[in-house]
Amino acid sequence: MSTASMPAPFGAFTADYAVAGRLARDLRAACEGLSAAEWGRLMARSAAASAKTTARTRWSVLRRAGAGATDAIRHVAAVGPRQAASDAWTTTVDAFTALPSRARKAFDQFRSMTRGRQVDEVIQMLLTWLVFYAAAGGSDLEGGLPDLDLMTGIGNHRTVFTHSVLLGIETEFAMRFGLHSLDSLIQRMPADRHPVWDRVHTALSRYGERTITGVWLGIGAHLIKDAGLLHLGATKPVVGMPVPMPMEAHQVFLASNGVAAAAMAGSGKAQDTSKR
Length: 276
Prior knowledge:
The protein has a two-stranded antiparallel sheet with strand order 1-2. It has helices spanning 17-32, 36-79, 81-97, 99-111, 115-136, 165-187, 196-226, 247-274, and strands spanning 8-10, 13-15. The chain is an all-alpha fold. The longest helix has 44 residues, at 36-79. The protein has one domain. 70% of the residues lie in helices and 2% in strands. It starts with 7 loop residues before the first strand and ends with a helix.
């Protein structure tokens, strides 16, 4: 048996080199069939489509988040940092208190669905949870997407670009760009391409929005945890703020951005549901 066709066990997974070779061939054929000018147009179309979709799905929430940030700064100036931090804590507690009733409403909606729709919802829920878990940083909410700034040095940790809704916008744009680009390449593959590519295309169309929702939820949970409102220990201030601020203001900034990120996730989910 040749190496190309010999399956190789990897835990519970068995690699099929013949299938892998065919997938690589399909992708290579799509890439090699593009000239430099066509590559440029493909990248430009993907970037434009990604920017347009991201702006459409998040702009209204981002505008409200910007207004909320302005109100938060005014609130800190009016009542003082400590009272503002206490108010932020109260808002966070109220949000958690409302979770049981929201969960009950979601469960009732789930029970009213058909069997096939229930299976699809479970798949999407698991996918969202897995992406959330990775983006947030695991069970302790340490690491994940926001803490990737540690790769540039401890002095750059917790910047305004990685510990605010800006991170979610950057990540969503990058993900949509990758999805659009891959979708364009799949359409340029040979007619006898492996059937898995069509399933990939269907999965991207069906579950892409839920993946992005998981990213936003993960970022939101991480930022709320970093705000330090749920524990008595000190928290690290945000790096790169335009003016010096007391620690309580940094906590309000992180908490408000965490709540805004969760709202972003909700806006995307609502749009995804409206398409069905």
